[in-house]
Amino acid sequence: MIVTVLAVAITAGVFVLINRFTTLTEATEGCTITTPDGTLELEIEQAQVAAAIAGVAHRRKLPERAVVIAYATGIQESKLLNLEFGDRDSLGVFQQRPSQGWGTPEQLLDPVYASGKFFTALVKVKNYRKIPLHEAAQEVQRSADGSLYAQHEENAKILAAAFTGRVPRAVHCWFSPEGDEETPAPAPSPDEARRELARTLGAGTTLDVSSRKRGWLIATWSLAHAQKYGLRRIRYDGHAWNVTAGEENAWQADAGASRERVQIS
What we know:
This protein has 265 residues and is of the alpha+beta class. The chain has helices at residues 44-59, 64-78, 105-108, 111-122, 133-141, 153-163, 190-201, 212-224, 226-229, and strands spanning 2-3, 9-11, 14-16, 22-23, 30-35, 38-42, 171-174, 233-236, 239-242, 252-253, 263-264. It is 36% helix and 14% strand. A hairpin with a 2-residue loop joins β5 (30-35) and β6. The N and C termini lie far apart (36 Å).
């Protein structure tokens, strides 16, 4: 089955947001999101964007509903991809426009910045937690057809449950530890990953955690960015992810993995 860049396909009960012109059976990397409400498959870039959105919302102490609205908006606008093009001068995951005062092109291509701008506008929408999702999203986006955001609400809820850390071990990503001829795997850079995590969650962020939900948010963020920063292992809360586990083996039991600290290497 082939999924095009604009399609939201369903195969064997699994929703696939996007797998750009890739045969699903031949995918060599990706992420699977599994919660009690359903399963989604993402590209790694989509998972990174989703993790950034959840991280910024966590930093701002926003409710999960805000994350759901952001995800539904991002799915409709860009399929949760950090697009360098769009209608007129629209850019990034939310297709925000420099000419409309959202920021510079460079800023809007930073998912952390773009998410912050989206949430700044969203919290100004009266009763955004209670009104229909598409109405809240349209108040922010002012798109040609605001009703289109509603169709993505259920998928957005699955993503929010996973990336906010509310559902533990909900995200599994796999990729070749060696990379490929065109893009060799980077050397492990856990320090760089920590700096980017702090930029997302706020200055002073460490891998020490005060709650299990925050711990799984950080562990999930780390997993979504494992390929980018060359991470090989993530340990937390009695479980561990290893890059060598492959597509079928997600988080495995690890009795030595602490609940007080996320370990990345």
